């Protein structure tokens, strides 16, 4: 755990930015991230850094001080860990205090709360409502709600109906909803299929999230979305009139990624609709400061919807 925290901290401190989240809206690929901020000391360092978005994992478990394990609560921890020195309540309180006291809008932190079970999410709703200002500060609620590419049967998705029922109590928080995936350095074949995209659209509409109008960002795995450009456009087009849709490209270390195809997806979707949350070496290879697809991507994402 300590090694993971140290690696993340090095990346955070190396990726400083002088712009705020609001200023990055025209080019979301510039937004910087800290991952697995599940430790009190790590949170302190991230708050002191220029990182703009704090991603943290929420599970049901116990604070380390609760030696008899008498009080199961939402804690900041990634399974299989069930202990932490940081509760969700304290995490939110510290980030909220930092944001309220920030005298420079470029220092404000957004939060991405990654829920590892529906039980953890349902137990967290009242804590979030009471302990954070979602209307004023960027708040993402993340969960994998559907099974996804490459026969991923090992990870059980969060129940989508229960997720959306609970999420509606959080008002207009951004919903970061995706598919479970199986991928790695030895994978070269896989995509977000027609059926998986249809299932996502159907579950959003059947739960009236299109009518609720929440902003939605779809976390898509870099190596897979690079092979799924057409279906991602179709996903955007199905929801663009009811929800503010973006994509969040993510990748695990050493994932197999076709860099050129991934660049094509990013520039096709648009820099204003694509967050890029990938390891530093992959981010550098993407050369996002240079639009190599300028001639082929003059047709806007909105205009492509007439093809469907």
From TrEMBL:
Keyword Signal: yes
Domain of life: Eukaryota
Ranges where the Menorin-like domain occurs: 27-282
Alphabetical list of Pfam families matching this protein: Menorin_N
GO CC, alphabetical: extracellular space
Swiss-Prot/TrEMBL keywords: Signal
Signal peptide feature range: 1-24
PANTHER family: CONSERVED PLASMA MEMBRANE PROTEIN, MENORIN (DENDRITIC BRANCHING PROTEIN)
Family stated for the protein in its record: Belongs to the menorin family.
Listed name of the protein: AGAP007860-PA-like protein
Classification of source organism: Eukaryota, Metazoa, Ecdysozoa, Arthropoda, Hexapoda
